[in-house]
Amino acid sequence: MDEASFSVGAGEFVTVVGPSGCGKSTLLRIASGLLEPSSGTVDIDRNHLGYVFQDPTLLPWRTVRQNVELLAELRGLPRAERSELAGVAIEMVGLGGFEQHYPKSLSGGMKMRCSLARTLTLRPPVFLFDEPFGAVDEITREHLNDQTQQIFQREGFAGLFITHSISEAVYMSTRVLVMSARPGRIVAEFEVPFGYPRVQDLRFEPKFAELSGEISRELRGNS
Questions:
Q1: I need a labelling partner for 166 at 20 to 30 A (CA). Which of 77, 108, 141, 222 fits?
Q2: Are 75 and 84 in contact (CB under 8 A)?
Q3: Secondary structure class of 109 (helix, strand, coil)
Q4: Edge-to-edge strand ranges of the sheet holding 175-179
Q5: Burial classification of residue 158, based on how many CB atoms lie within 10 Å of its CB (0-12 exposed, 13-18 middle, 19 or more buried)
């Protein structure tokens, strides 16, 4: 990866798209501190950072509520406080009524909602999303896109999102960054002109298709 210079401010949802193996996930791991960059600097508050992985990484012996409380528990928050935070987060992601279920009884989309709720308990000002919805079916993915957008509007965090889907990138974002093939570089940036809240029918609007086409052409030219 080379020349990956950009910023994400509060209230911005920035998505990075690029060919497989270009360094998108590496970019997130560097941002989170899981990897050290060989050069350059990263200015981010890693003490208040939310990270949603490709895999929900739920503990199978803990219920939904217990999984959602996990990060708050590790932070040492009192039982009553983490229970309250977990309850709010569970409702925000639409898992009310499933608090006592175990991961094995959840669908893929529900597991990802549980993972998202777990991070929400810490109310992080910065959220990193590493292709979190890539493994679910298209309809579930659309629902998760909408729920994540609603949470973004409510919380106003700075979001950095990784995806292979151009349509998802345009639908979710305030800006889309395009990475080239290895060594990955940020080669283009697109402002997304659509306001929030957004509805799924936006994907069929001519301006949406036009912007998606521009991003696709940029990707093909740098793959």
A1: 108
A2: no
A3: helix
A4: 49-52, 126-130, 158-162, 13-17, 175-179, 186-191
A5: buried
pLDDT of 134: 85
Beta strands in 131-212 (DSSP E): 158-162, 175-179, 186-191
CATH topology of domain 1-45+125-223: Rossmann fold (3.40.50)
Other residues' Cβ atoms within 10 Å of the Cβ of residue 47: 7
Which amino acid type is present at position 216? S
Please state, as a whole number, how many other Cβ atoms lie within 10 Å of the Cβ of residue 71: 19
Strand-pairing partners, residue 9, are none
> Could you give the CA distance from residue 144 to residue 132 in angstroms, rounded to a whole number?
9
In which residue ranges of the chain is CATH 3.40.50.300 found? 1-45+125-223
pLDDT mean values, one per 10 residues, the chain (223 residues):
79 93 86 82 81 92 97 93 95 94 95 94 92 88 93 92 95 95 88 95 97 95 76
pTM of the model: 0.90
